[in-house]
Write a structure and sequence with these properties.
Blueprint (H helix, E strand, L loop, with lengths): L1 H12 L34 H17 L4 E8 L2 E9 L14 E3 L5 H14 L20 H4 L4 H5 L11 H5 L4 H6 L23 H10 L3 H13 L5 E2 H6 L8 E4 L2 E4 L10 H4 L1 E4 H11 L9 H7 L4 E2 L9 H5 E6 L4 E5 L2 E10 L2 E8 L4 E7 L9 H10 L23
Antiparallel strand pairs: 1-2, 1-13, 3-7, 4-7, 5-6, 8-9, 9-10, 10-11, 11-12, 12-13
Amino acid sequence: MKAMKISLFASVFGLALLVPGQPRLADAPSGVATKPIVKRPGALADQSANARNIESLAQRLVAEKNLPGLSMAIVQDGQIISMKGYGLTDSQQGSPVMPYTVFRLASLSKGFASTLSGQLVEEGAMSWDSPIINQLPAFKLKDFASGTTVTVRDVLSHRVGLRDHTYDGALAGDQPYALIAERLSDAPMTCSPGDCYGYQNIAYSLIGDLTFAATGDFYPHQVEKRIFVPLGMSNASYGLDGLMSSASWAKPHVRGKGGWLPIAPNENFYRVAPAAGVNASIQDMAQWLRAQLGHRPDVLSKEVLNEIHTPQVATPGEIRSSGWRSERLNNAYYGLGWRVMNYSGRTMIFHGGAVRGFRGLIAFLPDQDIGIVVLWNSESAMPSGLMPTFFDEALGLPKRNWLGLEDLGPVSDEVGAD
């Protein structure tokens, strides 16, 4: 296992290379667009009024449901039409959440891994469909022959053949990623690689080792160099040190007898950087959303975006849960680091993220050229309703109370950090 140990160690050690909290470029654009919107075919009418209403609902959600904090951005036709923070970074003694306040992204990090992989494929340093043992010769699965067929595409679409969340418990139990990854050779399999879906964090993070093998550089530094810096994501970082070194960062909260209680952030899932390692502000995520919608072809080519947003494997369980999923989704797939869903007849690219004390989501309709990101520092499910509420209004769908508020009429939007 010597070859794998070297690359696994490199992926983890690479977290220390970043200098979190230090600006790398000029600050990202600060807010609402001032240039006229230039629409692409199929785009929607100006959704600025809809965005103002969603801002008001976000404000009410924090105030009436006693949530600690939240941040949200909405992008249409390449322009940021909303970007605000609400509530506090710490429910007991925090400062206001601002657009530059950093949150932990958890599994929203997976889209960065697939995007970086696409850039490396485009350069010829990596291949979607070649076996990963070509670059990680020590990689094995319980079925040895199957292990020799696993590709980058399989890893990024969760089609390695393993059971859902293989060894996540070991990671949560504070075991080192490098040692857990070696144990994949003993993990039970549910199918041959490429034949079924099983959501992964450990196996997904082999992308970090593949990046090191392909470039000779650490995964977090490659993401910083190729994505964070050129997109102007000046608050983005990797790892616990990155979070806590930020000028403003949201503390995670869990439920207690007296309401939401701030806790110390847990380091465990930071150890799988490609799966769950990114920290970012809503300013950063607005730029990320613009890029994923195709408005930064200088950084992310159309070919890369088409590849990572293409369905790879069906995930019917996503449409069987309650709420907006069961009512609005017609089908659901996983692409490469992204979920690809049919939202009432429109293609929606989506991912959610959850780790102790933090939640978040990003969703966009590429054909309509519009999207939303919501990040919050509690384990409440309520803020997830902001996304379908916004899209329903934009698409003219029947209104539903996805937020649990008694009255969905707009209120003053004086509160909330611009």
